[in-house]
User: What shape does this take?
Amino acid sequence: MTLTDEEKTTGTGPAGLGVVGWLRWGWRVLTSMRTALILLFLLALASVPGSLYPQRGVDPGAVARYFQNDPTKAEWLDRFSLFDVFTSPWFAAIYLLLFLSLIGCVLPRTMVHLKEIRRTPPPAPRNLARLPHHADIEGDLASAEAYLRSKRWRVTTGDGWVSAEKGHLRETGNLLFHVALLVLLVAVGVGGLFGYRGNVLVVEGDGFANTVAAYDRYLPGSQVSPEDLQPFSFTLKDFQATYIGPGHEKQGQPLDYYAKLAVQDSPTSPEREVTLRVNEPLEADGALTYLIGHGYAPTFRITGGDGKVAFEGAVPCLVNNTSTYESECVIKVPDAAPEQLAFLGRFLPSTVPNGKDWLSIFPGAANPTVQIWPFKGDLGLDEGIPQSVYDLGGHQNLKPLGQMTESPKPMAVGDVADLPEGAGKIEFTGVKEWITLQTTYDPGRFPALLASGAAILGLLLSLLIHRRRVWVRVRDGGVTVGGLTRTEGGDFGEEFAELTKALEHHARAEVKDVS
Amino acid sequence: MSPDRLATLSDQLVLAAILLYLAAMIGYALELAFGRVTETVKERRLVAVGGPSDDLPEPAPAPEPASWAPKAGLVGTAAMWLGWAANVGGTLTRGLAVDRWPWGNMYEFVVAMLLAAVTVFLLLQVRYPVRFLGAFVGVVAAIGLGFAVRVLYTQAGPVVPALDSYWVAIHVTAAVAASGLFIVGGVAAALFLIRKEGPSRLPSRADLERVAHRVIVIAFPIWTFAVISGALWADKAWGRYWGWDPKEVWAFITWVAYAAYLHARATAGWKGKAAMIVSLIAFACLMFNLVGVNIFIGGLHSYADVNN
Assistant: This one.
């Protein structure tokens, strides 16, 4: 939106006007409708790469893979912020210019509109028959004025005429819509500055306290300090998932999953039971915690060559295949003596043999087994280089234990396997499940919602209401009504016809009342 | 009836709808091809009295219209209504078969969207003389349904937990309704570009422009609402109301493009043809968001459930 184009020129700049002149010219160009239109196009165009290239804010793993597969291209793409399109300087430049253009247009239009609202409708033109809508009616000025006032038209009268106007809400709505967009942008910005987001993986039976250290991944806004985090905590009591059973085309598709949490809103508050579902987050003190994903965490007891238990607990495995939940596990046992141990595992929740191999045919844990490939040697945990808990890659000092086979016989729950070379033993003790959670705190949420609501309201007003004027004039003993809509595309003909009918009807009714 | 029988009935009704839409298309097309060229005079009622179409040159004397042409149009209208009924039945039985809102995957969405488009056309036809659109809406509906059945079809069944929410009723319904309106707007805009100035069997460019504008003006707030309700749902389901997921990106692009159309229409030098082209670009974005994002890009919205 902007001032009408007739008032603007976007042609060549004025010559020899000095700094002020140029600034004025620049402002005029920026706030012209044509510029706004071009900026809208640019905004749409600039968003496209955000859907074609993986985005760090959406899927950082995909970005990392892109870098791995094609480092040179990825580097060049990164140079142009194509992995962070929506936080890139050039994207910001476009929307800031657009919003500047918007402000430059809303402000003057608001001034004009305030004046318009207070102004009385203009006097009737001399010849109403020249208007696009006109009709001769039976009636009189007084009844017409009374009728128009009763229908909430703004009315003024003069010598032999009545003038009425309606539809200022159109421009009000238009301005409301555009201001709401500005508020929305501010709300999004506030959310980014004062909000935070964190992801964490929790195994059944384990707990979580909302602190920076407890998160696996923590993304704070620039104005958030660690003390600002809401002091809630919870324990994951149970997780349940149900899937479509065999015999259906969509076998294995999840039907429902939920997690039972025991939540404390602060260390001193009483415990409450919360069931977390996909569309039903946990709310604690304005922070929302969502169930994002889930998987299996088989539990093991691992004994070193010295006969001492070196590890006992759950190992969250990464899901390889979401339709069968075949998962990949890595177990690192730095406490095993005399030599450190490590295991690669393949977890199969519903195991069936398949030739020399085994595979999972269903995501539910109907027949859980795990295949184990043992290693021994130096885990390298003392070298100070951060490692992922999900892979063994890069450990040159690890040696396979015994004969490595393509697909070792899977262990069932309760099975114990002695490791070759007397390195110890491993016991598959049970199956737990893990969930991944995302906690978000966004103080801009509610303002953004209000702004969106206002935007819709403004949009409806500005698109559905038309500004229109009606005049009634007595001339040569007859009464003529003329009408005009100020907005293009307004379908005033029908309303005008109804109005003239109503005016006549009203006049007749008044005559009857008098007589 | 058992869910399986209902699901089969739904499939049969959708096939019936395709055939009926094709029949409607032929009927309307025959009327358009052999009917009276001067029909445009009547269409002028769409334009405000004294509107721009008064300046149009009178159509050149036309060949004598075939006497059966209006009947072909009536047959077209009847077939369109029957096809609409079959389409409603198909969507309804699908919903009953799966016991949820019948727009949970891409197949169902496209069927519902075309139902919305045909509904928009039929409602317009009741109030305004827009029969000329029938042939084109009919062919779009028939091809669209055919595409849905051939490419997107998926067996009736439950949806993933994330989609098992009352937000389907709000967010997806709004998207279906807006898309249906945009389709009719797109058809009118395409006709605008195809039609040359001067006499034609199609109504004047000004009339076509008005039809396109009117439906887009209704569709735009609904689309805005669809995007906002989507954000509300995302806030409940994914922990953020806006995350630049590919579907969100393209919904945003579509929104911006239609906003650009509405602005273009009010900008000197952009009125008319240029604005119509912008509306078609916006429509292309909408279609890409529907087909392209679901099939080629993916993301959190990849619920298309299309067997590849």
Remarks:
- The first helix of chain A runs from residue 18 to 30.
- The radius of gyration of chain A is 36 Å.
- The longest strand of chain A covers residues 287-304.
- Residues 1-11 of chain A have pLDDT under 50 and may be disordered.
